[in-house]
Each structure stands twice: as C-alpha cells, then as structure tokens.
Amino acid sequence: MISRRNVLVGAAAAGAAAFAGRAASAFAKASQPATQVSFDVPPGACDCHTHIFGSSARFPFAPDRTYTPEPASVAEIRALHRALRTSRVVIVQPSVYGTDNACTLDALRQLGSSARGVAVIDDSTTDPMLDGMSRAGIRGIRLNLETTGVTDPAIARQRFQRAAERMKARGWHIQIYTRLSVIEAISDLVAGAAVRVVFDHFGGAQASLGIQQPGFATLVNLVRTGHAYVKISAPYLSSTQAPDYPDVAPLAKALLAANPERLVWGTNWPHPGARVIGGKVTDITPLRQIDDGRVFNLLPTWVPDAAQRRTILVDNPARLYGF
C-alpha cells in the first residue's frame, strides 16, 4: 500500500533531485576546446599560464580570497593540452590559495618534468621552503596586484623591490598581474632589476583603447629593451569582442615587433571568473567557458611567421622556466 508518508518522501526526493540537477547545470566543468587547432604546433610548445583548483577539503582556500572557484583538475588539464597539442605547462599559483602553494605543488608532482610552476610567497616563507619549491619545479614568484585590488604605485613599488631583493640570488623570475598605470609607475625598477620580470595578460592593456593608450608604450619599451617578458594570454580579459577578439591583434603585433624573444603564450585555463558584485566570497564563481582551440588559432594571425611562433611557444619558455 502506498501511504501518505511514502508519497511525501517520494515527492521530497524528486524535488531534491530536480534542485540538484538545476544546481549542477548552473556550474559547468572546466572548459575543453570545441575547435581543433588548425596550425602546426611545434614540439615542446608550452602553455605558460594555467591554474589548478583542487578539492577544498584537501586544499583549503584562503579566508581573505576574493572569489571561490569551481574545481579544475590535473586530469582535465591533461585533456586540454592533448587537444591543443602542447606538451609543456606552467602552473601559476592562483590568488584563492594565498601563500599556501600545496595545490600547485601537488599538480607539479603529478605532471612531472613537463611542468613548471610559479608560487606566491610572503615574509614567512623561509629559504629552505623555497629550496623545496625549486626542487619541485617552481621557477618564479607571482605578485597578483590586480585581483587583490592593489593599484597604489607606492605599494606596488615596495612589493616589487622586496620581491626582487629576495629573488636575485635564486635566479627565479617575478611574474606580475597588474595594469598599465602600475607598470608605468614601476618601470624604472623593472628596467634596473637584477631579476627577470614577466607581465601577465598583455600587461593589463585594454584592446578598445588601442596601442596609443597610456602606459602601453612603456610596456612595449620594456619588451624592446629586453627588461620584461609579456604573456600574450587570455585575450578575453583585454577585449569584449568575443570570440575572436580582433582588437587584441594590434596589441600583440606591437609587442611582437618590439621583441619576439620576450613573449610567451598561455591560455589562463580554467578561466576563473570574477565574483558577482553583491555576492558572498563563499559563493561558487562559475569558470568561464572559453574555446581554447579557437583562441589558440588566433596565434598565427598575431604571429604569421612559424619561426617566431616557435620562439614564443618553445624557446622563450624553455629559457624562462628551465625546461
């Protein structure tokens, strides 16, 4: 006999399942390429900007983070790079973990000799800890000024000087995520630094403003003189003209003309999104669904010469990350 209790329990279960389905559909898995790569990718090509987001139970997020991402696993990044036909990768410590590099180091362990990493440290990070990171494949440290909202040139200068002093004897580079106004304010320090410097994502240039935008000439000059590398990565952070971001091409070509030996390429997979204004930091922020195959196919339009593409995809990363 079907009792009233059975009916209520069944209805509750059905409702819970429907809710779970809606919740699952609201958050997609980390993106995989929908478009096949249409050019010859040279052996040893490197994706120089990726992140891994592990289980929060195993790798807790920092309490002062600005967003909470969905998971993105080593298995998924392997699938990504099989599709892109790239054989090397750089795992960059994301801001959500603060200075706890355990998730990044675990990814390096799983990926082995084909992977290198960039860590985030502070004054409590000891030299023996850095030695261990070096053995694990870490080759630089990251100053994530943009995500943490640091736009004050004085703070940026102080943080850069402290990082450069710490890194100069170790031979690691300093990777900086910031905007052009900050790059302009610290350009003298970058030019005089005894360490290599890498700027993320077109140096924060906004494609709609073109190559004449304030600060871009300073970035180009740092590239031209060999004082800085730039990642031509994540064009969707510079442009709103999806899916092919045509207004990014002049930026890429200006940097290429300045010095192809100071450019590297990266996806920014799994494409973390920005927290919705008004939401809680603990709310899960969906990953952006980016077709990395289609975006990778933009590289030959930015860099038509195959030899220069090899420089950007293979030679420069090998030199910078020690492959």
On the 0 to 100 scale, the average pLDDT is 92
How many individual domains?
1
Radius of gyration: 21 Å
Beta-strand share of residues: 5-15%
Task: Please describe what this structure looks like.
This protein is α/β, with parallel strands linked by helices and 323 residues long. It has a single domain, classed as Metal-dependent hydrolases (TIM Barrel), CATH 3.20.20. The chain is 39% helix and 13% strand. The protein has eleven helices and ten strands. It has an eight-stranded parallel beta sheet. A two-stranded parallel sheet has the order 2-10.
Short description:
The protein is an alpha/beta fold and 323 residues long. Helix content is 39%, strand content 13%. The protein has 11 helices and 10 strands.
Tags for this model:
323 residues; alpha/beta; TIM Barrel; two-stranded parallel ribbon
Outline the fold blueprint.
Elements: H1 4-26, E1 46-50, E2 68-69, H2 74-84, E3 88-92, H3 102-111, E4 115-119, H4 127-136, E5 138-144, H5 153-167, E6 173-177, H6 180-192, E7 197-199, H7 216-224, E8 229-233, H8 249-258, E9 263-266, E10 284-285, H9 292-296, H10 299-302, H11 306-321
Parallel strand pairs: 1-3, 2-10, 3-4, 4-5, 5-6, 6-7, 7-8, 8-9
Helix pairs in contact: 5-6, 6-7, 7-8
